[in-house]
Amino acid sequence: MIFAAALSSALSLAAIFLVPLAIAGLALTNAGLGRSRSAAHAMTSSLCAVAVAGLAYFTCGFRLQGYPVSWNSLADAVRKPEFFLQGMDPGFGSLPILLGLFSVGLSALIPLGAAADRWRLAACWLSTLLFAAITYPAFAHLAWGGLLARLANSSLGHGYLDAGGAGAIQATGGLTALAIAWLLEPRRGKYPASGMPAAIPAHNGVFVLFGCMLAWAGWLGLNAAGAIIYGRVPPENSLAIALNTSLAASASSLAAAVTTRVRFRRPDASLIANGWMAGLVASSAGCAMLKPATASLTGLLAGILVVLSVEWFELHLKVDDPCGSISVHAVGGIWGILAAGIFSGNSGQLVAQLTAIATLLGFTFPMSYGLNWAAARFVRYRVSEHGEQQGLDLDELGADAYPEFVVHADEFVQR
Q1: Buried/exposed 280-303: b ≥16 CB within 10 Å, e otherwise
Q2: 3-class state of residue 65 by DSSP
Q3: Distances (CA, A) of 51 to 6, 106, 160, 361
Q4: Cβ distance 61 to 237 under 8 Å?
Q5: Theoretical Cys-Cys bridge with 189: which of 49, 268, 393, 413, CB 3.0 to 4.6 Å?
Q6: CB atoms < 10 A from the CB of 393, how many?
Q7: Each residue's pLDDT tens digit, 358-376
Q8: How far apart are the C-alpha atoms of 298 and 224, rounded to whole Å?
Q9: 159 pairs with which residues across the strands?
Q10: How far is CA 73 from CA 68, 140, 164, in A?
Q11: Packed helices 2-16 and 95-114: angle between N→C axes, nearest 10 degrees
Q12: What is the pTM of this model?
């Protein structure tokens, strides 16, 4: 028994050490999909967001979330606040804290993609602080120890299933990205007075595709560690989890390639990359219970959904999301939650998953929008028009990422 517990802890720790690769992959993807004149700013924002998120989570976020093994209530967190990880187990009992620290950092990068090329660094810090201290831990508590997890007591399957954080990490970050994109409004020249939205291409496709490879490795660790710690699955199931994660990503990227080929007459590299990421996201909810065939089907539908969703948000809702973060993480995450219920074969489980989706849309999104709306009253969120035109690298950092090249052309923007 002791040996089994030690093995589970050791495998969890090894898996958790892979999660920073997902953070690096998402940061590279965000930078590559943005403009070249804001590339250094994108990477700087990513590094700062991870740092702010980690410190906010250390200060009070984890206390609000609570240990998954003790099911601390929100009332306990308010009544007996234990900030700065007081009383932390110095041994393997602190694994949930380390996983949470990396997870909140990953989730905090998602809004950066939707706000690319126009979000001020100071505003990013403040928004990330609110996200890591309030928004993320509030839903994470509900998902991994609170009311949603306890739906099993109401005969609703096993309660809300979200081993790898499709809802708690991905959809929470994706819905926050939607809130911020709405508050910031589109980039200058994206929506001309007449005509279609301007196509503003990614400045570095190699960054984007390499970021997908890094994210794949990170997601293997994220899903395996989450399944062991939050889903309480045996550590030997890690191989099946890795298989399901990889199959979902593969099917999703190929589905995105076929969908873009049919709709746009040629495959689109950035949307194929978004498809790969959406497959990883969608796999996270049910990674521990899906069969390889259903994991592949989950990914296939995620790849189709992400292409259609990117188009829908851009054309019909006029939401300027340069990196497709809302479609990949919010839509992909919600689909993953739903797929875990559909493919469970249990109607009660499906109801539990639908309850979680309703909580995300009815509680998490309004809270995130409200917090950022209030913060924007005190700190200017968007850069000036001049700053956006010259690029955030020069405007906020004082130096270009590519000083030897001319990166200030705007030929692709419709007037």
Answers
A1: bbbbbbbbbbbeeebbbbbbbbbb
A2: helix
A3: 30, 11, 30, 27
A4: no
A5: 413
A6: 23
A7: 999 999 999 999 999 999 9
A8: 18
A9: 157
A10: 11, 12, 22
A11: 20
A12: 0.93
Confidence of residue 145 (pLDDT cuts 50, 70, 90): confident
pLDDT of residue 289: 93
Helix (H, G, I), strand (E, B) or coil at 234: coil
**What local confidence, expressed as pLDDT, does residue 194 receive?**
75
Q: Please name which of 180, 159, 179 lies closest in space to residue 351, comparing C-alpha atoms.
A: 159
Q: Which two tokens stand for residue 285?
A: 């909810």
What 3-state DSSP class applies to 83? coil
User: Residue 108 in contact with residue 134, Cβ under 8 Å?
Assistant: no
Q: Which two tokens stand for residue 69?
A: 């093994």
Q: Would you state the torsion angle of the CA atoms of residues 16, 17, 19, 20, taken in this order, to the nearest 10 degrees?
A: 150
Task: Establish how many alpha carbons lie within 13 A of residue 17's alpha carbon, considering only the half-sphere containing its beta carbon.
Answer: 6
The rounded distance, in Å, linking the Cα atoms of 398 and 244 is: 45
State residue 380 phi and psi, 5-degree precision: -65, 125
* C-beta separation of 259 from 303 below 8 A: yes
All structural domains of the chain, each given as residue ranges with its CATH number in brackets, are 10-397 (1.10.3430.10)
Of 32, 25, 37, nearest to 204 by C-alpha is 32
| Distance between CA atoms of residues 388 and 14, nearest Å | 42
| Cβ neighbourhood burial of 186 (10 Å; 0-12, 13-18, 19+) | middle
The two three-digit tokens of residue 15, written as one number: 């898996």
Contact criterion met (CB below 8 Å) for 68 and 96: yes
Structure-token match 């831990």, residue found: 137
At position 390, the amino acid (one-letter code) is Q
Name the pLDDT band for 408 (thresholds 50, 70, 90): low
Which three-class secondary structure state does DSSP give residue 119? strand
Percent of the chain with pLDDT over 90: 74
DSSP state, 186?
P
**Which of these, 178, 157, 73, 65, lies nearest to 354 by C-alpha position?**
157
**Is 225:12 a contact under the CB 8 Å cutoff?**
yes
Which segment of 193-202, 247-256, 289-298, 304-313 scores lowest on mean pLDDT? 193-202
Among candidate residues 81, 83, 139, 72, the one with its CA nearest the CA of residue 107: 139
* Residue indicated by tokens 């001309």: 192
